[in-house]
Amino acid sequence: MTESIQRARATTASYSITMRIHAGTDPAVIGALAVKVAESGGITTALDIVDSHPDRLVIDLTCSASNAEHSTEVVDAVETLEGVRVHKVSDRVFLLHLGGKISVESKVNLRNRQDLAMAYTPGVGRVSQALADHPEDVPKLTIKGNSVAVVTDGSAVLGLGNIGPMAALPVMEGKAALFKRFADIDAWPICIDTTDVDEIVRTVELIAPGFGGINLEDIAAPRCFEIEAKLRERLSIPVFHDDQHGTAIVVLAALKNALRIIDKKLADARIVVSGGGAAGSAIVQLLLAAGAIDVTVSDRPGLLNRDDESLTPAWRELAERTNPRGLTGTLRDGLQGADVFIGVSAPRILDPEWINEMAEQRIVFALANPDPEVDIYEATQRATVVASGRSDYPNQINNVLAFPGVFRGLLDARATDVTTEMLIKAADAIASVVTDEQLNPNYIIPSVFQPDMSKTVAKAIVDCVPKAPAKSIPMTDAN
């Protein structure tokens, strides 16, 4: 390697490209391609000769970049090599999404007339009549017992904002794929073309008979609060807003382990939360329910204070429950001597130097995605424990740790609602996976691929649900 090779940037598979390259037959071209990618800050993940001719090699070069602009820089750098031509560039993320990411598969074989007669008419009529007589058996004899509706209006999708229900569909498909992969739950994207609260609530009410649970996703605040409250009141199946409660569960789990590192109890920690929207409100509520006392919220007006009459109803409700010191001013004012910063707000709102003004041992969770509240590298130079929402740094706060197991438990227990106790127990279950021997500043939260992660969370949920006496018609009587 030459001295001119730069240190690779923090790259990610979400900006991964494959270049179809035509080059000469000089064997040195393979090494030259890898060097050129490295010089431009990319990382080569695969390099294959897919075809060979007397005067030409056809090469597929796959590499990761840090963003779309960086991908272009890598391609331009490769094209500067003499005798090398980039014939085509494929974005691997878009290739993965071609035709969608989920499908429906039958669980029964339909091989002959007998199979048809049992799976469909006339046999299915006996099952339908039995369920009309005994509706409590619907979850057992239909997909309802293992299905979740992933509902959105597309008004707050990831960091993209209000992009609408059709553009939100790939995200909802991804959510459904995660449900299947991590908890073997059949989830269905339901993208509703309205932002009217009553229309959304009524639509979900009408489709609810086919589902065992409702997962609200990427709906803007404060509308999401009203939708969730109305659906919980009207439906007899659990309603879970992952942007709120899933995030809160994982944040609480990670914070409990981070506090173990600095030897501080939750009740004794001074916590500042940046962002009073859906995620921030849920995090605050769960922290308080779990025993936190000194929590202050910062948003556009500054530190939320109950004496500020200009606050919106949602912010006022937060202010009434937080800021016991009566602090006023800016985020920086709130951070003076604080033990914990939790950001679910906007990029670059936390100056790295402000971290030095916190307590001697400090915890920074910068969770805005894709760009966090503070440069993560700068934060690690100043804080005892740092977490983010990104996969390219340690301690990723990822909702996948929570929602598959939560719904697995809700469905298995035939729960009718979601309680605060369940959320706290789920957080405890996630935190407990990290043993004392494993715990360190770079490992406060388990990987989403930790074996049995969903089962551990599911058991915690099931244990919270009162056991109802079993009642069901014998299968021999279903006629």
TrEMBL record:
It comes from the Bacteria. The keyword Ion transport does not apply. SUPFAM superfamilies: Aminoacid dehydrogenase-like, N-terminal domain (SSF53223), NAD(P)-binding Rossmann-fold domains (SSF51735). Residues 244-466 form the Malic enzyme NAD-binding domain. Keywords: Metal-binding, Oxidoreductase. CDD domains: NAD_bind_2_malic_enz. Pfam families: malic, Malic_M. Residues 99-232 form the Malic enzyme N-terminal domain. SMART domains: malic, Malic_M. Belongs to the malic enzymes family. This is NAD-dependent malic enzyme. It comes from Terrabacter terrae.
